[in-house]
Amino acid sequence: MSDFPLSAGGARRPLSGPRRALTAGALGVLGVVTALAATLPANAAASTLGAAAAQSGRYFGTAIAAGHLNDSTYVATWDREFNSVTAENEMKWGPIEPSRNSFNWSQADQIVNHAVGQGMKVRGHTLVWHAQLPSWINSGMSASDLRSAMTNHITQVMNHYKGKVFAWDVVNEAFNDGGAVGTLRDSIFTQKLGNGFIEEAFRAARAADPNVKLCYNDYNIDDANANKTRGVYNMVKDFKARGVPIDCVGLQSHFGNPPSNYQQNIAQFAALGVDVQITELDVGGSGSTQADAYRRVTQACMAVSRCTGITVWGITDKYSWRSGDTPLLFDGNYNKKQAYNSVLDALNAATPNTSPSPSATPTRSPSASPSASPSASPTRSPLPGGCSATIKTINSWGGGFQSEVTVQAGSSAVNGWTVKWTWPGGQSISSLWNGRQSVSGSSVTVTNESYNGSIAAGGSTTFGFTANGTAATPTATCTSP
Ligand code: XIL
Catalytic site residue 280? Predict the structure, then answer.
């Protein structure tokens, strides 16, 4: 591996960036504004998330699944509250190009056309990702074949949505969890194309559309100092220095709590000259704890002018991909939760975004749609004081599936848990949340995160994962110390 593992070629140049200083003149203007504000009525607070975000020049979006568009309350809530949308699954490679160079636009178009009709923004998600790939992308392909498939996919999909999508997640989740700074996740892309596949994808995306923002999107890059975050930071810095087109970083932000340095993290990416977007926000929990976490996320974005918008990963808890965590702003009956109010208040409190970011940087220098297939592993009754775990299939598609695992405490509270199972048929986890995994052959061990280790007697928590292979629900064991 070369000195600079993410590079697909080209020399490195040092970065030099302008620094802004608050001048005495600016302070003088501030004084006048304060005096005026005291004599004028305060801005009326907006009553919906989208309108409140728009006051500071930002958007507030949600993920939408085409399969729920027949739920009229779902659509009415979407139209009323949000001014941006991300297709939850419909633009992913598997669903949209189920066989090679033959595109199935209909579900994604349904979402996009509705959004455009409502004057909403559309975030494109996602062009190159190791998960939810069509089965025709496989290890039998040669490097040059995969490269041309990737370029064609990027070009066709971006052309189809040209002028409608304002930002694309060009590459999603390419970095490894844990490990040394800058290590990429093992995938068909790294195996065939090497680490330079990210740069190749961004260059192909810019060639396809010079007027759209090109984003790198990932989870667990919320902590300013985490190794994974540092890896993405170094990549963006290098791309900027070498003129590789990149305009934004997406923080998925699937968590139980934002790290204390979350705002600092947004600011450090913005300082590299890219926009930051919170792209898949959902926060497990309930009541004031959840509301507080949502408030801190929203305030962190509002505090950084290049944080241009927030997308929550769904509208109602009942359709959430991690619905067991009740992570969204509306409950299963579309009632606004406490978290909704804390977000709305934080959006309303934001000062106008004075430096809106420029548009995209010019070129410088099997059936793949997810289908619900409910099936669950048998539950073992927990020993008194112990815990049990049940694996349930939430979604499956050609070559992959998503599962939710419920960890249930017995008759006494649990403080820390470990869940283990063995895959029956070569399955492998591609991404896991709300837990830490270690894998040895077909055996998987998942332990709690710092925030979900404690479960009250009789209570439960969940973690989830997406995996490659045929959906399976092996029996899982749970132990607690
Ligand atoms: C999830 C969807 O919400 C589920 O419906 C699907 O089963 C799996 O994918 N990171 C991403 C999103 O970038 O695309 C994922 O969406 C959640 C994690």
Answer: yes
